[in-house]
Amino acid sequence: MEVENQTETKKKVVVVEDDTLLRDLLVKKLLRENFDAVGCVDAKAAFRQFDQEKPDVILLDLILPETDGFEILTQIKASQDLSHIPVLILTNHGQKEDVDRALKLGAQDFLVKANFTLSEIIERVQMVFEDQSIV
Amino acid sequence: MDKDFYNKFKGVDMNVLLSFIAEGLVVFDDEGRIVILNPHASLLLDYTAGELTGKRVDDMIPSYLGKKMIEADKRIAATVKRGETFSVPIDQTLYFENQNGIRFPVFASAKPISLHSEGGDVSGGVLVFRDITVEKELEKAKEHTAETLSHLTPILQKTATGDFTHYPELPKEEDEFTELLVGLRLMLDDLRELDLARERNEQEKIFAVEEKRALTEKYSKELELEVERKTRELSAAKRHIETIIESLTDALIEYDNDFRVVRLNDSAEKMLGVKKGEIIGKRVSREDIFERSLSALVQITFPELSEKSKHVSPDVSGIEADICELPVTYPIERDVQIITVPVSMEDGTARAGILKMVRDVTREKLVSRSKSEFIAIAAHQLRTPLSAIKWALNLLQKGDFGKLNEEQVGVITDAFDTNEKMINLVNDLLNVARIEDGRFGYEFTKNDFHNLVAKTTSLSVSRANQKGVELIFTDKLQSPKEFVFDYNKISMAIQNLVDNAIKYTNSGGKVEVILDMSGDYVRVEVLDTGVGVPQHQIDRLFTKFFRAENVTTLPFSGSGLGLFITRNIIVRHGGEIAVESKEGKGTKFSFIIPTDESLIPAKDDIAASLYV
User: Fold this and answer.
1) How close B433 gets to chain A, by Cα (Å)?
2) What ipTM goes with this model?
3) Residue A95: which of B386, B387, B439 has the nearest Cβ?
4) Which residue of B has its CA nearest to A18?
5) Do A117 and B390 touch (CB under 8 A)?
6) Which of B28, B207, B408, B557 is deepest in the core (most CB within 10 A)?
């Protein structure tokens, strides 16, 4: 019952990050923090995951091979099935234009990787659900 | 005459009658002996009648013609005896000499007479004479006058012509003219004096005129020299300026108000691919843009024709000028910056023309593009591995991969802190690059400044405590203060100042943040009791990469970018930042920013001036 309950309440997080080390560290941390986390390396893998996993939150990098984060975000927000999923941008491009563009496209939050520890990132992810529960 | 009177008259004594005659009358006989004489004759001759009667006329009356005694045969009685009349020859004067030897001029005439008397006929002569002394004198006087006048005439004539140098001579003896002549001489003296005065005056006038002329000549000579000197100076200055203009690496083009090219320097020829000879005097028109060889000239003349032309913010120099940038394709592809300034008339009233300075900014553009690329690369390529290290060390530190001993945690923490410094340095570099790119991304919104300062200060409390530095927030505002500013940037600025203060203050020291109002501005002061800044370096404090010489040896690292960024933030808000410091005693940073939104400068006014 307890286990079942745990699985039920476990939030599914899809991490879209092309840097292997960063992706592994983040997924590891999310799993340790009791999230159901999956990492993907590019847009193709990401959309396959979105369809399969129906994530509760998406952590999205901006610089990715072929299709970049802005394009993925645009597609998420354009998709009837996915548009409701909160997207946190996790990038090292912290320029205001990037932030503005991402928020305008519907991103929930914008985090500069170098300025956050994993613990702080987890806090931000948790904040998304807290906000949702308030709503 | 009636018979009666005649008879009566016959009875009158002849002598009595003769005595009434006003002329001398002498009757003499044919021997020349004086028979009768009238009283007037005896008076003139100074004899008594008795002394003369019976004496010979020619003896008793010595006669002279002029000074010469008349010869005996030509004397009165002798002449009459021959039956002739004695008279005075014309042009000569006859003189009689009286008893006292005095000669006097006379008019005399003697004629033979024959008288019938009772005693028989007597023949003889009668002499009538008259003293003509007065007449003679009159005549003499007349002659003298004439002579004097004849002397005077030429003098007077000369006088009439203005020549006053000739004097009438004064007679040796005083005469009736003496007074007149003396008067004349005096008058001539006066006239001559006057004339001399006039001449002197005239001379003086001439001198004055001469002097004036000489002076004028001198002045005009000096003026001429001065003009010559100035002209030389001017032409030297002009050559100097010409040389400068010609050797400018920037192209310089001057137009009149009709866009006719007045001047073009060497660099302009090269940069625009035109020839001076063909362009000077030519009116640049918009249609020429289709002429390839003129396209660059037309483009820089009328930048608005270029789609890619863009205005840039004014220069720090303060010159009021229009600056824009655009790419040209002729003679080669390059980016140019065009500074357009009106040329004023000398009196500054009207526009005399237009001056354009064209600078080849191709390289700068390239550098600028490289910088933007660097930002992207630094952001991604540099921060990605730094993030990985940060995350990994953080996981280890927090014991995510198993509990570490104290020593291990210490090492990991040091590594984490070092990595943090790297990240901060990269962040600072990125901020500076963005500031210089004009893309720092300011976002002005209405916020509570009081809350901002309190919150930002509290963020540094733990750091201060760790270091053993007391951090005090002195809030003189005590109430919310809402106005428009960039919350994150001001927070960054305050954090920079507070972190610096903590960093450079030794354990046991104090850092104080004071919030106050200063008119329509809020004032934030950050005071510390730290190492201070050497006086001679204080002006360089806000420049990029500057670190004071007294901190480079300290075991604190710093990018030297924090204060540059802080100043940028304050200035961008229309505020000011100042610093006071005493080495070894401490430092006080204070800044003010306006609470009135209208005092925040428009971005364009400020971007360029921040390229410090």
Assistant:
1) 11
2) 0.86
3) B439
4) B384
5) yes
6) B28
Asked whether B422 and B386 are in contact (CB, 8 A), the reply is: yes
CA gap B314, B579 in Å, rounded: 28
On the question of pLDDT at A135 being above 50, the answer is: no
Ordered DSSP codes for B95-134: EEE-TTS-EEEEEEEEEEEEEEETTEEEEEEEEEEEE-HH
Sequence-distant (6+) residues with CB within 8 A of A15 are A23, A26, A27, A30, A37, A38, A39, A40, A59, A90
The CA distance from B602 to the nearest CA of chain A, in Å, is 18
Q: What are the pLDDT digits (tens) for B384-411?
A: 889 999 999 999 988 888 888 999 999 9
CA distances from A48 to A45, A82, A84, B281 (A): 5, 12, 17, 72
Q: In this complex, which of B380, B395, B426 lies closest to A25 when CB atoms are compared? A: B395
Alpha-carbon span A106 to B270, nearest angstrom: 52
Per-residue pLDDT, A5: 46
CA distance B503 to B505: 6
Coil, strand or helix at B74: helix
Asked which of B80-89, B272-281, B343-352 is least confident by mean pLDDT, the reply is: B343-352
Quick: pLDDT tens for B48-66. Answer: 888 888 888 888 888 998 8
Question: Is pLDDT at B491 greater than 50 in this prediction?
Answer: yes
Picking from B392, B423, B439, the nearest residue to A114 by CB comes out as B423
Alpha carbon B489 to its chain centroid, in Å, reads: 59
Per-residue DSSP letter, B403: P
- When pLDDT is cut at 50, 70 and 90, the band that residue A1 belongs to is very low
Whether residue B418 lies within 8 A of chain A, CB to CB, comes out as: no
Where do runs of H (alpha helix) occur along B342-486? 362-377, 383-397, 406-437, 449-459, 461-467
Q: How far is residue B611's CA from residue B250's CA, in Å, rounded to a whole number? A: 21
The whole-number pLDDT of residue B117 equals 64
Q: DSSP secondary-structure letter at B92?
A: -
pLDDT at site A125: 92
Average pLDDT over residues B507-534: 91
Q: Which residues from chain B sit within 8 angstroms of residue A119, using beta carbons?
A: 394, 398
Q: Report the chain B residue with the minimal C-alpha distance to residue A111.
A: B387
Residues of A in contact with B430 (CB under 8 A): 94
Task: Report the distance separating Cα A11 and Cα B79, nearest Å.
Answer: 201
Q: What is the pTM of this model?
A: 0.53
Q: Which residues from A are below 8 Å from B380, CB to CB?
A: 63, 92-93
Under 8 Å CB pairs connecting chains A and B tally to 64
Please tell me if residue B426 touches chain A, with a CB cutoff of 8 Å. yes
Residue A114: its chain B contacts at CB < 8 A? 383, 386-387, 390, 423, 426-427
Residue owning tokens 């006048």: B149
